[in-house]
Amino acid sequence: MNFTRFPRRMYLQGETPIQAMPRLSKVLGNEVNLFIKRDDLLPGCAGGNKTRKLEFCIADALEKGADSLITCGAIQSNHCRLTLAWSKIEQLDCHLILEERIEGSYDEDASGNNFLFKLLGAASSQVVKGGTDMAAVMESKAEDLRSQGKKPYIIPGGASNAIGALGYAACAAEIMNQINTMQLPIDHIVLPSGSAGTHAGMVSGMTGLNVDIPISGINVSRDRETQEALVYKLAQETVKKLNIKPELKQKAILCFDEYVGAGYSIPTNGMIEAVQLFARNEAILLDPVYSGKAASGLIDLVQKNYFTKGSNILFLHTGGSPALYAYQDFFREEM
Ligand SMILES: *Cc1c(COP(=O)(O)O)cnc(C)c1O
Fold first, then answer.
1. How many A from CA of 148 to the centre of ligand 1?
2. pLDDT of residue 332
3. What is the CATH number of domain 50-158?
4. Per residue in 187-205, is it b (16+ CB within 10 Å) or e — as a string?
5. What is the pTM assigned to this prediction?
6. Cβ–ligand 1 contact at 198 (below 6 Å)
7. Any idea where the domains of the chain sit in the sequence?
8. 291 CB less than 6 Å from ligand 1?
9. pLDDT at 151
10. Count of CB atoms within 10 A of residue 218's CB?
11. I want to staple 267 with a disulfide (CB 3.0 to 4.6 A). Which of 159, 204, 253, 330 is the partner?
């Protein structure tokens, strides 16, 4: 795979660590050996997976002469926080459209990413009702800005288009370099599957490298069939963009929807338990919406003996810990 064909800002400063989680593995009965890829430690304000995608999306914006970014997300969106953070570094205006997916859940004074939006200072932010056509609202914002003589560039939710997914195809290459250097045979990769750029990028990258390590996505909102179709479509576009020769196999895309609970961003007991287990055994902070639910899936799959005994499992930690501070109340009674 040749990433030098694409405009790219260099935000990463090297590889993120791959670490063993021996204490957590032991607590779970030593059935498998757990490892973690620390994308929560990526640069950008408070870390997380969107930085890899934004390297390519913001580079594309700059190449096209943009002076303003427009993006969207949920009211505690990590993607909006990171887009806003990198916009500061690049000295671009950043406009946020925030979706209140659960009626009545928006609190102007909420902590977590909501607080960080204000601290970082968006050029504008607008909260819209759940179910709003976000692409249409972003387009009308762009129209608005163009009429003021600005040059806006729209980054889709989660930066999950084929440009953003390049970041996770590149991450697949990074992981293979690391595990080859460490001589660490990974048997399975587990990651959260949301707007799908992370999952699709990883599958595309592994396909391009001719590596067949199974990848399991843990859904955070959609049912299995819908999510697998979404990931597959984006992976097809990404593979095409990268001119990857090995065949993208539809059955390489595997999603689990058992850990979503009542819906996107609504806490589950499994998420709370997972956040506590990672904190108390490995001193690693997960988040309530993505990595915590993905980890609850990982833990359940380990406990159900889904993985071969003794195998090495790599969990991709996509970040998100600032959102924890907006969810304190869900943890208090458990402590
Ligand atoms: C956005 C996000 C995800 C999901 O990644 P997608 O590429 O949208 O599927 C996972 N974890 C965190 C912390 C995120 O912010």
1. 33
2. 83
3. 3.40.50.1100
4. ebbbbbbbbbbbbbbbbbb
5. 0.98
6. yes
7. 3-48+161-332, 50-158
8. yes
9. 98
10. 28
11. 330
